[in-house]
Specification:
By secondary structure, the chain is an all-alpha fold. The protein is built from 17 helices and no strands.
């Protein structure tokens, strides 16, 4: 029997119960992220330090993500989410103690960001894969849009709250909030049941854990590589992330250096992105997008290009132009990503969604560590805004290319759900 046939009529109540807890956790995590990034900006003023912090946060997702996806597919997803939230909270507790002792240094933050990112690397595919087991397929796009709106809402309220807290209380007290919100995220998970799909036979039959995981990861990569349209889209995403991600990692220095701003100005940009996420996410949730999801995605990518160019060309005396640019980026991001996530959720069978999701993320951000490694020195020479200009131009070119490549356009063609044995032919 298909998992969709087994969904309870009370699916919405169960999903919302979990979703609310995760919303609290997201708020705590964003407060921590904002506070730590601003601490590094104020203490060092170094583009290299900020880029390094972003680099260590990307490493788990890029290099360990496929392993995390394979582990998610073969284990209890609820348990993985609980352990991930708990590990992130314990890491934050360690930072609280170090900050309270007055010995906090950038390398402490590097380690904490790496561990927190590692926890999120496991949590995210577990939550994404669980969604398809809890939500009817016809609501995938809407749930994706609402999730994007949630991320946006947290981006609206977390930065100004963080900016106010930075001026009012010590860092360790701000960090403590994340521990409380982690408890609020874990609690609902203790009282719900998340079904686990039947394991595929190939990896399940292996007695060697490492060999079995490698088989799972290989299947994830082959799954995507043989699904030509999706693979091409991922390569386009890789090129966009190569330019845009370093730019956003250096946004605090753009505020202090180019616009001569403060933590409050930085929070304005972060909140503008969040407002855009809410508008775009709720809009996608209500609208559902064009009939062909790939067309909706190309609209979003082109719109992101417009936003990036506004930010890239904003002169020092026109800070509102930068705010408008990040707002447009925020609106268009869920319109670009939401349909693609919905496509994955509807076409990939549940037992493979963990590894496919993490492999997609790993491939799409595969060169980001390299770009972050050179972001600091290049930004010192050519300026941070150069990244946004180049990324904006690329985002305007890519939609045109996507709509002229047949395998990409064919991603929306009616078909049975993709499985290892059928469409992409993994084996």
């Amino acid at each position: 029997m298909n998992n969709q046939d087994q969904l309870s009529s009370h699916w919405l109540r169960t999903f919302v119960f979990i979703w609310v807890g995760q919303a609290f956790s997201m708020l705590g995590s964003m407060l921590v992220q904002f506070s730590l990034v601003w601490w590094l900006t104020q203490k060092t003023g170094s583009a290299t330090i900020l880029a390094t912090a972003s680099l260590v946060a990307y490493l788990p997702m890029v290099f360990l993500g496929p392993f995390a996806g394979a582990i998610v597919d073969r284990n209890d997803r609820k348990r993985i989410m609980i352990l991930s939230d708990a590990s992130i909270a314990l890491t934050t507790l360690g930072l609280v103690v170090i900050a309270w002792l007055g010995i906090l240094a950038p390398w402490h933050i590097y380690i904490a960001m790496f561990i927190r990112s590692l926890g999120q690397t496991f949590h995210s595919p577990a939550m994404t894969a669980s969604t398809t087991l809890l939500v009817p397929e016809k609501h995938y796009a809407r749930v994706s849009g609402v999730n994007q709106a949630l991320a946006g809402a947290m981006n609206i309220i977390a930065p100004p709250i963080g900016a106010l807290l930075i001026g009012a209380i010590d860092l360790q007290w701000i960090l403590s909030i994340d521990i409380i919100t982690a408890v609020l995220a874990i609690t609902p998970l203790l009282f719900v049941t998340i079904p686990n799909p039947v394991r595929a036979a190939v990896a399940a039959e292996s007695k060697n854990l490492i060999a079995s995981l490698l088989i799972d990861i290989k299947q994830g990569y082959l799954y995507i590589y043989r699904w030509k349209g999706l693979f091409i889209v991922i390569m386009f995403a890789l090129s966009i992330n190569l330019l845009i991600n370093p730019a956003f990692s250096l946004l605090p220095l753009l505020v202090t250096g180019h616009f001569q701003g403060t933590a409050l100005h930085f929070s304005y940009l972060e909140s503008a992105i969040g407002i855009g996420f809410v508008v775009g996410g709720l809009g996608l949730g209500a609208w559902g997008g064009f009939k062909r999801r790939i067309v909706t995605a190309t609209l979003g990518i082109g719109g992101m290009g417009v936003g990036a160019l506004l930010l890239g060309f904003a002169p020092a005396h026109l800070f509102p132009m930068a705010v408008a640019g990040v707002f447009v980026l925020g609106v268009m991001n869920p319109i670009a990503n939401g349909p693609l996530f919905a496509l994955l959720q509807s076409r990939v069978e549940p037992s493979y969604q963990g590894r496919v999701t993490t492999v997609v993320n790993s491939l799409a951000t595969g060169l980001t560590p390299l770009s972050l490694a050179v972001a600091g020195p290049l930004s010192d020479k050519y300026g941070i805004q150069t990244w946004f200009v180049l990324g904006g131009v690329l985002c305007l070119i890519i939609p045109v290319l996507m709509l002229t490549i047949r395998p990409v356009v064919a991603l929306d063609d009616p078909a049975d759900p993709v499985t290892v044995e059928t469409a992409p032919g993994v084996g």
